[in-house]
């Protein structure tokens, strides 16, 4: 109530919330070591909702080791997902919030609406001290699962905002002459170059992390698309950068359980270039 009373008199309300994980040497909010769930600690969800109800300009700053649920999202002005804080956390947050620094971070996991949207769940009760886990999701981790099940995330893998805007154009794919027959985990032979341009179409300087995803030929049981490269380009207003990402023989291969080796599939591959796993700006294809 005291926090809500103070927030009601402010132009903007900054709410700091966190959830951590450790090595079972301390118990915090019922969590000993790894997190029990995807909720924020210390009753933060209720506090955020309470403050947002009295101040429409509520900004939530989250320090967390991974995804959290955001049931209050529609009632707040903004969310800053700040990861784990260090000694310069305060200065960094001030720089971003006041516009002295243009943020360019991208999410390395998906933020879902519901905990059950994720393919794996916490084992809360087991007669075994160290229960075995069956990884039934297979290759469909994180964004791959959400794509396969057509689940709409709150914030997708690779998502991130900026104070400027970016445009993508001029996608080209250049194939190399030879694809090696024998492929191992160390094989870095380039089979294709994917090139495109990123333009800063806004009014301020900023950096964009463009992402390259690859779709395999149909019928292989592979995810819809898998991340195969990314590059950060810092651009002045009106500036552009040429991005050149390569695909190696290993990156266009799938693992054969029967032959116990990597194999290049024959067929049409699809390239997706975008600002996140769901914000695809350019699409192309090539055949092997």
Written overview of the protein:
By secondary structure, the chain is mostly beta strands. The strands form 5 sheets. Strands 9-8-13-14 form a 4-stranded antiparallel sheet, with no helix packed on it. It has a 3-stranded parallel sheet with strand order 1-4-5, covered by helices on one side. A 3-stranded antiparallel sheet has the order 6-7-10, with no helix packed on it. The longest helix has 9 residues. It is globular. It has 4 helices and 14 strands. Helix content is 11%, strand content 33%.
Q: What's this, in brief?
A:
By secondary structure, the chain is mainly β.
Provide the fold topology.
Blueprint (H helix, E strand, L loop, with lengths): L1 H7 L4 E7 L7 E2 L2 E2 L11 H9 L5 E7 L13 E4 L7 H9 L45 H6 L17 E10 L14 E11 L5 E10 L10 E10 L4 E9 L4 E4 L4 E4 L3 E7 L5 E8 L1
Question: What sort of overall outline do the alpha carbons produce when their principal axes are compared?
Answer: globular
**Percent range for helical residues?**
10-25%
Please identify the structural class as seen in this structure: mainly beta
**Overall pLDDT level:** 93
Count of helical segments?
4
> Helices and strands, in N-to-C order?
HEEEHEEHHEEEEEEEEE
The radius of gyration is: 22 Å
Low-confidence stretches: none
Beta-strand percentage?
25-35%
Tally of DSSP β-strands = 14
Q: In which order are the strands of the major sheet placed?
A: 9-8-13-14
Distance between the termini: 64 Å
Quaternary structure annotation: single chain
Sheet having the most strands: 4 strands, antiparallel
